[in-house]
Amino acid sequence: MARDRHPLIAGCLSALLSHVGNRRLIARELRCSAGGSPHCSFVVVAQARKKALDELLAAGHHNVSQLAQRLSSPAPVGA
Questions:
Q1: Predicted pLDDT at 3
Q2: What are phi and psi of 71, to 5 degrees?
Q3: What are the tens digits of pLDDT across the range 13-71?
Q4: Is 36 helix (H, G, I), strand (E, B) or coil?
Q5: Rounded-to-integer distance, Cα 26 and Cα 44, Å
Q6: Hey, CA dihedral for 54, 56, 62, 66, is it positive or negative?
Q7: For residue 79, what are the CA distances in angstroms to 30, 37, 38, 76?
Q8: By the 8 A CB rule, do 67 and 37 touch?
Q9: Contact status, residue 9 vs residue 42, Cβ threshold 8 Å
Q10: Which of 9, 27, 53, 57 has its CA 20 to 30 A from that of 70?
Protein backbone atom coordinates (compact mmCIF):
# COMPACT_ATOMS: atom_id res chain seq x y z
CA MET A 1 0.00 0.00 0.00
CA ALA A 2 1.16 3.54 -0.67
CA ARG A 3 0.84 4.57 2.96
CA ASP A 4 3.50 2.04 3.94
CA ARG A 5 6.25 3.45 1.71
CA HIS A 6 7.32 6.36 3.90
CA PRO A 7 6.55 5.57 7.55
CA LEU A 8 9.47 7.71 8.70
CA ILE A 9 8.08 10.81 6.98
CA ALA A 10 4.59 10.07 8.34
CA GLY A 11 6.06 9.64 11.83
CA CYS A 12 8.00 12.91 11.59
CA LEU A 13 4.86 14.73 10.42
CA SER A 14 2.91 13.21 13.31
CA ALA A 15 5.53 14.30 15.83
CA LEU A 16 6.01 17.79 14.43
CA LEU A 17 2.31 18.56 14.04
CA SER A 18 1.49 17.01 17.43
CA HIS A 19 4.05 19.30 19.03
CA VAL A 20 2.84 22.42 17.20
CA GLY A 21 -0.84 21.56 17.77
CA ASN A 22 -0.26 20.56 21.39
CA ARG A 23 -2.29 17.36 20.90
CA ARG A 24 -1.67 13.88 19.53
CA LEU A 25 -2.01 13.76 15.74
CA ILE A 26 -1.48 10.86 13.33
CA ALA A 27 -0.21 11.15 9.74
CA ARG A 28 -0.81 8.53 7.06
CA GLU A 29 0.42 8.48 3.48
CA LEU A 30 -2.35 8.45 0.87
CA ARG A 31 -0.33 8.47 -2.35
CA CYS A 32 3.33 7.97 -3.12
CA SER A 33 5.56 9.14 -5.94
CA ALA A 34 7.49 5.86 -5.62
CA GLY A 35 4.21 4.08 -6.39
CA GLY A 36 3.48 6.08 -9.53
CA SER A 37 1.64 9.15 -8.19
CA PRO A 38 2.90 12.56 -9.30
CA HIS A 39 3.66 13.39 -5.64
CA CYS A 40 3.35 11.98 -2.14
CA SER A 41 0.21 12.98 -0.20
CA PHE A 42 -0.39 12.65 3.52
CA VAL A 43 -3.46 13.07 5.70
CA VAL A 44 -3.32 14.06 9.38
CA VAL A 45 -6.04 13.25 11.92
CA ALA A 46 -6.51 13.40 15.67
CA GLN A 47 -5.57 10.28 17.65
CA ALA A 48 -9.28 9.59 18.25
CA ARG A 49 -9.82 9.12 14.49
CA LYS A 50 -6.78 6.89 13.86
CA LYS A 51 -8.68 3.61 13.86
CA ALA A 52 -11.39 4.94 11.53
CA LEU A 53 -8.77 6.36 9.15
CA ASP A 54 -6.80 3.11 9.07
CA GLU A 55 -9.99 1.16 8.33
CA LEU A 56 -10.92 3.52 5.48
CA LEU A 57 -7.42 3.31 4.00
CA ALA A 58 -7.45 -0.50 4.26
CA ALA A 59 -10.78 -0.47 2.40
CA GLY A 60 -9.15 1.46 -0.45
CA HIS A 61 -10.38 4.99 0.26
CA HIS A 62 -7.53 7.31 -0.75
CA ASN A 63 -9.49 10.36 -1.95
CA VAL A 64 -9.02 13.30 0.43
CA SER A 65 -12.58 14.57 -0.05
CA GLN A 66 -14.07 11.13 0.64
CA LEU A 67 -11.93 10.68 3.73
CA ALA A 68 -12.86 14.12 5.06
CA GLN A 69 -16.54 13.42 4.52
CA ARG A 70 -16.40 9.99 6.18
CA LEU A 71 -14.33 11.25 9.10
CA SER A 72 -16.35 14.43 9.67
CA SER A 73 -18.72 12.85 12.17
CA PRO A 74 -17.79 13.49 15.80
CA ALA A 75 -15.13 11.17 17.20
CA PRO A 76 -16.30 8.71 19.83
CA VAL A 77 -15.65 9.89 23.39
CA GLY A 78 -12.70 8.11 24.97
CA ALA A 79 -11.36 6.75 21.67
A1: 46
A2: -95, 0
A3: 999 999 999 999 999 999 988 888 899 999 999 999 999 999 999 999 989 999 999 99
A4: coil
A5: 5
A6: negative
A7: 23, 33, 35, 6
A8: no
A9: yes
A10: 9
